[in-house]
Amino acid sequence: MAVVVAEPTLEEARPIFRLGVDTYHQMISTGLFDEDDRLELIDGELRAMTPINPDHAGKNKRLNRLLNQRVGDKALVAVQDPLTLAPHSEPEPDLMLLRPRDDYYEGANPTPADTLLVIEICDSSLRYDREVKVPLYAAQGVPEVWLVDLQHRRLELYREASADGYRLMLRPAPGEVVAPVLLPDVRLRVDELW
């Protein structure tokens, strides 16, 4: 009987070099990327971010204003800032609510331990955000993620992070009031998002 040896897959034959967060920061500090380059580090790979259209930009401004009005001194609102998910990822969520710090994170980017809520605004990126970024956030221990689905005018809340993903996903109705789990006094009516 002949023994058949399977040929290695392309990835096995030519492994992919994955960047770490530290290497990525070194590349940024040397000026390798222009500030207009819309990139984020996801699982060691540099990923192009989708261009921001007016609907997305407007929703980001609306949420930024609503959140700043509601959180007061309870949290810092970060807009399209990096979130370090060591060792191989540094996404740039549309919005984050962060634990307040005296240095406003000037010394280092926030990590999951600093994060109260991540919000991603999705239009053409919905599938990518849901299938790639949400599981990444869960595996790294980000306590809660909201996806603002522009195509379907729907909000998805992901809670109870675990290594296998979020254990709870909610889709509140337009008239419902929602609040981040870690900031229960920061209440928003879902239809305020639209």
Walk me through this protein's architecture.
This protein is of the alpha+beta class and 194 residues long. The chain has a single domain (50-193), classed as tt1808, chain A (Alpha-Beta Complex), CATH 3.90.1570.10. The model has no long low-confidence stretch (mean pLDDT 91). It has helices at residues 10-13, 21-29, 54-71, 126-139, and strands at 39-42, 45-48, 76-79, 95-98, 115-122, 144-149, 154-162, 165-170, 177-178, 188-189. It is globular, with a radius of gyration of 19 Å. The strands form 3 sheets. It has a 6-stranded mixed beta sheet with strand order 3-4-5-6-7-8. A two-stranded antiparallel sheet has the order 1-2. It has a two-stranded antiparallel ribbon with strand order 9-10. A hairpin with a 2-residue loop joins β1 and β2. It has 4 helices and 10 strands.
Describe the main β-sheet briefly: 6 strands, mixed
Sheet with the most strands: spatial strand order? 3-4-5-6-7-8
Give the full name of the CATH homologous superfamily: tt1808, chain A
Oligomer: single chain
Instruction: Predict the CATH topology.
Output: tt1808, chain A
- Put simply, the count of helices is 4
Shape: globular
InterPro entries: Nuclease_put_TT1808, Restrct_endonuc-II-like, Uma2
Organism: Thiorhodovibrio winogradskyi
Domain Putative restriction endonuclease: 22-190
Pfam family, one: Uma2
